[in-house]
Specification:
Layout (H helix, E strand, L loop, with lengths): L3 H8 L13 H12 L10 E6 L2 H10 L11 E8 L5 H18 L3 E2 L8 H6 L6 E10 L15 H4 L10
Antiparallel strand pairs: 1-2, 2-4, 3-4
Helix pairs in contact: 1-4, 2-4
């Protein structure tokens, strides 16, 4: 019996090149809703997601995120922010980002996590209040080329996993 969630985790890859093809609104909505439905410490939900689809705005985001110039070629991007006053905000939005990436992948949409905080210019660009900090921008688009599903370079499981105690039989 296959587990579709495990298959998504097993096969998802970072995508940095996108087709010039729009993503249907219902797919974008499902991706954002996946973030919204993610678990949150004490159910505080200290997040806000800004969906960006206008080409000029995507190009500007690509200039503002140092390690994400390819945002400019995406069909959409989600700016992910958290309330600065919440000490678990980074953890909660990290969970939300992973949920969105996996749901996007399930719909054939590629993505990647760009940035990691220090995105004040992005916060201002999308009009988020000062009480929020942008943790990441997640570009979205249909992959430009076929990717090797499931072909990941990972350490052997035995090197990163133990049973009961560190070094225990696994």
């Amino acid at each position: 019996m296959t587990n579709p969630v495990f298959e998504a985790v097993r096969t998802v890859l970072a995508v940095r090149e996108y087709q010039d093809k729009p993503i249907p609104d219902e797919v974008l909505r499902r991706i954002v809703e996946a973030g919204h439905l993610s678990a949150s410490a004490s159910n505080a939900q200290p997040w806000h997601f800004v969906l960006v689809t206008r080409r000029d705005d995507l190009r500007e985001l690509g200039r503002l995120v140092a390690h994400g110039p390819y945002i400019a070629g995406a069909a959409a991007a989600i700016v992910v922010a958290y309330e600065k006053k919440n000490p678990l905000g980074v953890s909660d939005v990290s969970r939300a980002i992973q949920s969105m990436i996996l749901v996007a992948w399930g719909d054939g949409v590629g993505s990647n996590w760009t940035g990691f905080g220090a995105l004040e210019s992005v916060r201002k660009k999308v009009g988020l209040p000062e009480g929020f900090e942008v943790l990441a921008v997640v570009p979205l688009g249909y992959p430009k080329r076929k990717l090797g599903l499931g072909k990941k370079k990972r350490k052997p499981l035995a090197e990163v996993f133990s049973a009961e105690r560190f070094g225990g039989d696994n």
